[in-house]
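In keeping with the milestone schedule agreed at the kick-off meeting, the structural modelling team has produced records for the first pair of proteins. Each record is given below as a sequence line and a structure-token line. The laboratory manager (R.T.) confirmed that both were archived under the project's standard naming scheme.
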Amino acid sequence: MGKVIVLGEENSIFNQFLYEMRNIKIQKDRLRFRKNLERCGEIFAYEISKKLEYKTEEVHTPLGDTTVELIDQQPILATVLRAGLPLHQGLLNYFDHADNGFISAYRMHHKDNEFEVKVEYVSCKSLEEKTLILSDPMLATGNSMVLSYQTLIEEFGEPKEAHIVSVIASTEGVEFVKNELPDNVTIWLGAVDDEMTAQSYIVPGLGDAGDLAFGEKE
């Protein structure tokens, strides 16, 4: 069972961005909503970078030589389309040498208000012995995150470690992901909310992250 780290439990500027994304008035500004998701991605990237392996490199300055610790191996960043794009961009801003993967997944709804998650398309480099960072802004039931992770490893191999990144999660979703994914997976969250609606939206959550970032679907 992997480790869970909730950044919003500590006082930091992260909570300002989370507040603005939740706020029913401020979140209507799509540009600001996307930017706040991107900012959260940057903070997640900084915190995750502390957990990676480093190597010593020599650097030559105009006045002399010194050494610096650099990331030994760049992670592979993957996200779930479309809501994950701004969060992914924030991670990519900091891990700017990283290779990238993309998963197209959607909910197939049934008449009884039930749904199943379907993956239509996945693209990624080999994950063998790499570090995977898989992001999606909302972790509700956890089904899409688990299916996305499983699809990636089935298609592209087993990573040596993985980091799951979501801004807001439900308690139920966190438990599901913890139980379904291996011990070498760390779950990074902004906040954890206790409830979900019958349609599997997190309460209080923030609404539909994809619609808020890119406009409502038909």
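The second protein of the pair:
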Amino acid sequence: MIKHFAAHSILGLSLAISTASASAQAVTPTFTTFGALPAATFGGSGILNTAVAITTFAGSAANSSLTLGLSAAERCTNGGALCGAPVTNDGAGTFTAQTGAPFAANPGYASWNVNFYAQGNTNLYSFKLLYDFNPVVGNVASTHGEFKLFTVTGISGSGGLDQNSLNMGFGFLSTNTPGLTIASALTPFNPNVNGEYSFALIASDKTSGLELVRSAILVSSVPESDGYALGLAGLAGLGVMARRRRAA
């Protein structure tokens, strides 16, 4: 009996160490493939699904495979009549969006949204989205807020599916709501601040709570002037090349 108790203690300690270690690590781009996820609508219409950080997991039991997808895109309102500046990506899990709050009706909303897709057996797995309000580069997982999936519109069960598009300005993300969100302990999200934000969509074993797989991305929020300056630099470079060709 004593040995049995000791074994459980050691296992519990190892799981605790693993969880603490994961919480202390910076969230960095993580995925199996980066590209199109045709099944994803992200709960809306017209939301791009061609640049998605996709992670797949094939469990050993029946109905145990799962798919996670995470991306960022410009936010649109009024049926797409008003959109934030286009969001670009480097093809490796880092997205670049424009800093600012372009929506007069929602001054706290960013010009960009984070989009998630989770398909998997909710009897076997639990799913959550880690979201970042802090523009400092390299934030660790423990500083993020948590949004628990399959609690509002998700379809639970062996064929579970939950997907949506979230703006960091949504009020419920900054509120501790039992069973739904654990808000970040840091300052509220400010769409007008330049910086880097990290996000992770995580699937964990429902019994042990141990993380199995994740998809993770970064969103770099930069001012419009930076994009303008880069554009001018590109044009200047083309001009130099043209002059050199003429000289040759």
